[in-house]
Design the sequence.
């Protein structure tokens, strides 16, 4: 409890704020969620007015359900064109509890920008160098190629289509998109300009290839 409260206080100091709108426990894991030792910290932070809402960043659907059952007001999880199952499985639970969803990795660490080839190599200090084996990476490049049909008049490039796919899901509150420069920020804002994000035809075709 004390460590979590100190972490929150440090965040407030860095942000220069008195209250954090949404405070997430980062990947606590099944055992930690079940143990519940974090709960008293949440209660104290809410009582002191330091957080308005809380949630958890989770690794899979099982952790998400534990978080939702524990009362999380939001969850943050991995969801994109190549990793759809967890959010799909959680639809009923999310709707029943009114739990918000923050989607991380909508571009799958850059893969769904559609600009890499099978020969792409990452530097040793790049986390993506160890994220996929060479064979797994080449397989994923092939998966990306199957999604090229999304690029057209409605979606100028695959990155735009990938962001718009995430926002199509009714449970999604927001997508967390990493950006390295102002152009990428502008492109992400444009991609999120408003529904409908993907057409019914596109969504139907995706169900056939995924």
Sequence:
């Amino acid at each position: 409890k004390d460590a979590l409260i100190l972490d929150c206080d440090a965040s407030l100091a860095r942000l220069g704020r008195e209250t954090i709108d949404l405070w997430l426990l980062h990947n606590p894991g099944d055992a930690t969620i079940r143990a519940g030792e974090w709960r008293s910290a949440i209660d104290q932070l809410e009582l002191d007015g330091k957080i308005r809402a809380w949630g958890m960043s989770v690794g899979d659907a099982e952790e998400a359900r534990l978080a939702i059952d524990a009362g999380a007001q939001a969850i943050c999880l991995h969801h994109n064109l190549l990793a759809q199952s967890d959010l799909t499985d959680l639809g009923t639970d999310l709707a029943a509890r009114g739990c918000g969803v923050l989607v991380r990795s909508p571009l799958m660490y850059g893969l769904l920008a559609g600009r890499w080839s099978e020969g792409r190599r990452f530097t040793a200090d790049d986390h993506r160098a160890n994220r996929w084996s060479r064979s797994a990476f080449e397989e994923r490049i092939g998966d990306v190629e199957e999604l090229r049909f999304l690029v057209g008049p409605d979606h100028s490039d695959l990155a735009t289509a990938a962001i718009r796919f995430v926002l199509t899901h009714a449970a999604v509150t927001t997508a967390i998109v990493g950006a390295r420069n102002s152009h990428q920020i502008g492109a992400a804002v444009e991609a999120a300009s408003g529904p409908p994000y993907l057409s019914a035809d596109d969504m139907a075709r995706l169900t056939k290839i995924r």
User: Anything to note?
Assistant: The first helix runs from residue 2 to 15. The CA atoms of residues 155 and 161 lie 5 Å apart. The chain has a mean pLDDT of 93. The two ends are 43 Å apart (CA to CA).
